[in-house]
Structure formats: structure tokens, C-alpha cells
UniProtKB/TrEMBL annotation:
EC number: 2.1.1.309
Key words, A-Z: Cytoplasm, Methyltransferase, Nucleus, S-adenosyl-L-methionine, Transferase
GO CC, any one term: cytoplasm
Family stated for the protein in its record: Belongs to the class I-like SAM-binding methyltransferase superfamily. BUD23/WBSCR22 family.
Compartment list: Cytoplasm; Nucleus
Major subcellular site: cytoplasm
Residue span of region Disordered: 256-293
GO annotation (BP), single: rRNA (guanine-N7)-methylation
Listed transmembrane segments: none
Name of protein: 18S rRNA (Guanine1575-N7)-methyltransferase
Ranges for domain Methyltransferase type: 52-161
Organismal lineage: Eukaryota, Fungi, Dikarya, Ascomycota, Pezizomycotina
Domain of life the protein comes from: Eukaryota
Length: 325
């Protein structure tokens, strides 16, 4: 069966007919409800929160957010954004409680920094991996989305994005874009190695280990941007007092013309090269000129320059006369 995102862009695919079919299908509603409840479980919100629903469609997930029981941390207030005007029209017909915005998530999340406590996205972000025209860059759209999503969430906020990756490349592209934006990220799979597998990208603002921040993530592979950068820095960091540090310092001293101590025998054993001494530069006694002598030297310099200029002028005139004849 073909994937919807392989046929048309989302704003064209979800026209009035498809939007109504999607909203009224009992099968789709049940699947959407299960995935939304799973996303809420991973968010683990203990009190009523302000949530962004990315790709809200006709408000099926938003209805669940509005109806979370108080003992489960609800009800939640939500704002949704979607690129399909037909989907949003269905939500208005159904009189859902949340506010909604017609917007392309590939152009970014257009809200003030730190606006939301959390975010969810059900079956939406895989659309960002498609390029309908040659001037569309999936990498740029993913970067814009995750950068602005990160900014719109409060410090310590979390986001759960359920998506359907077409292949391992799309999965990696999406998770890498989230990590580069600064998120601590983990990927969780429900019903792996089956046709009904569900993939959840769990994100935490400010990096950090999402397995501790999110319940149910203890056995999940985690991608932590801060930990990765620290490890990379340690790998390439120059240890003070080490061989590379010493050789660099010696090179700096030699460049300044200072006398550098010969390389030790230990270096000869390690490198197999005999120690070499830098030849000392011959020192010349400084020549001190009397002020009057310096003036004479300057005058002589100017006189020589004037003679050279006169010679060039004479030669030039002779050439002109020769050519005239």
C-alpha cells in the first residue's frame, strides 16, 4: 500500500474528501487515540499543562488532551497547528476546545520562546522528509522545525513525536536534526518487527538523559547532544604536559627565535628519530650610528634614488627620439 506522503503534499492530499474520511473512520480514530494516550504516558505530565499539538489535523488528539482526568494530571490546554485548511475546517465543525493555526511546520513553530510545557505530534513529522520540488530541502525543513520547537518549549519541557519513517535513512535524518537542535533524544518502538510497529521520538529540552526524565524509557537507545559533544571534545583535547602539548610549545618558542632544549632520549625511543638540535643563529654586534651619520646615510639613499630616476628618464627620451626618426 502506498504511503500518503508519496502521493501529494499534505495540504493537497488532505482535501475536503480525505479530511472527512480521516476524521469519520472509526479505525483511524482508535489508532489515533491509542498513540495519543501513549504519547501522554511518555510525557508523564503531573499537572494541567499548556501543550502544542504539531500537525493537529481535525483535533482528534486535542480532544483527548482536553478530556484527561484530574487524577491523571489533566485536563490540558492545547494549541494546534496544521498545514491542511480542510483538516482545520473539520476541527471547527466538531467544535474542539483548542485554538488552531494554519501553518507549515517546515517553516518553523511561530510562537514565543518558552511558551509551552510540552508538545505532541502524531503521524506528522515524516512529511518533512519529502521534497516535492528541487528547491525544497528536507534537511533544512527539519532543522527549522526542531530549532523553533526547541525554542518554543520551556526549560525542562518534553516533546513526543510519533512518526512513520519510510526507511532507516529517514529515521536517522529526523533524530539527527532533533539532536543538533539541542534536544536530548531517544527513540522508542512499540510492537517492533511487526507491521503495526509505532515509532516515538522522545525529546527533552536542554539535552540530558531522557531515560531518567521520562518513565518507560529505561531500555531505550538514547542520543544525547551534550554528552556527544563533551565526548568529542575530550577525544581531541590536548593533554597538558603530553607529547603533543610539549612539541607545540617547542614549536612556538622556536618561531620566536628562542633557544629550545634538545628533544630527550625518550622521544628518540618513541619515534625512532635521533634528537636534533636547532643550529644557533650567528650573532652580529649591533651597529650604533651617530645621529649625524644616520642623516648622511638617508641623504645618500635619496641621492641614489634620484640618480636612478634621472637615468630612467634619459633612457625613455632616447627611445622616443629613436622611434620618431
Amino acid at each position: 500500500m502506498s504511503r500518503p506522503e508519496d502521493n501529494l503534499p499534505p495540504d493537497l492530499f488532505y482535501n475536503d474528501v480525505e479530511s472527512r474520511k480521516y476524521t469519520t473512520s472509526s479505525r483511524i480514530r482508535n489508532i489515533q487515540a491509542d498513540m495519543t494516550h501513549r504519547a501522554l504516558e511518555l510525557l508523564d505530565l503531573r499537572e494541567p499543562s499548556f501543550i502544542l499539538d504539531v500537525g493537529c489535523g481535525s483535533g482528534l488528539s486535542g480532544e483527548i488532551l482536553s478530556n484527561v482526568e484530574p487524577e491523571e494530571g489533566g485536563p490540558h490546554t492545547w494549541v494546534g497547528m496544521d498545514i491542511s485548511s480542510s483538516m482545520l475546517a473539520q476541527a471547527l465543525e466538531r467544535d474542539v476546545e483548542g485554538d488552531m493555526l494554519l501553518a507549515d511546520i517546515g517553516q518553523g513553530v511561530p510562537f514565543r520562546p518558552g511558551s509551552f510545557d510540552a508538545a505532541i505530534s502524531i503521524s506528522a513529522i515524516q512529511w518533512l522528509c519529502n521534497a516535492e520540488t528541487s528547491d525544497v530541502s528536507p534537511e533544512s525543513r527539519l532543522k527549522r522545525f526542531f530549532d523553533t520547537l526547541y525554542a518554543s518549549l520551556k526549560r525542562g519541557g518534553k516533546a513526543v513525536c510519533q512518526f512513520y519513517p519510510k526507511n532507516a535513512q529517514q529515521r536517522s535524518m529526523i533524530s539527527n536534526a532533533a539532536i543538533k537542535a539541542g534536544f536530548g533524544a531517544g527513540i522508542l518502538e512499540d510492537d517492533p518487527e511487526t507491521k503495526s510497529v509505532k515509532v516515538y521520538l522522545v525529546l527533552s529540552v536542554g539535552g540530558g538523559d531522557v531515560t531518567g526524565a521520562v518513565s518507560g524509557m529505561q531500555d531505550v537507545d538514547v542520543y544525547d547532544s551534550r554528552r556527544r559533544e563533551r565526548k568529542r571534545g575530550k577525544e581531541f583535547a590536548e593533554k597538558k604536559g603530553g607529547k603533543a602539548w610539549i612539541m607545540r610549545k617547542k614549536g612556538q618558542m622556536e618561531a620566536k627565535g628562542k633557544v629550545v632544549k634538545a628533544t630527550t632520549q625518550k622521544h628518540e625511543v618513541m619515534t625512532g628519530q635521533p634528537p636534533t638540535e636547532r643550529p644557533k643563529a650567528e650573532s652580529k654586534p649591533a651597529q650604533i650610528l651617530h645621529p649625524r651619520e644616520r642623516e648622511c646615510d638617508v641623504a645618500a639613499m635619496y641621492f641614489q634614488a634620484a640618480e636612478r630616476e634621472t637615468e630612467r628618464s634619459r633612457s625613455s627620451r632616447e627611445q622616443c627620439f629613436a622611434s620618431a626618426k
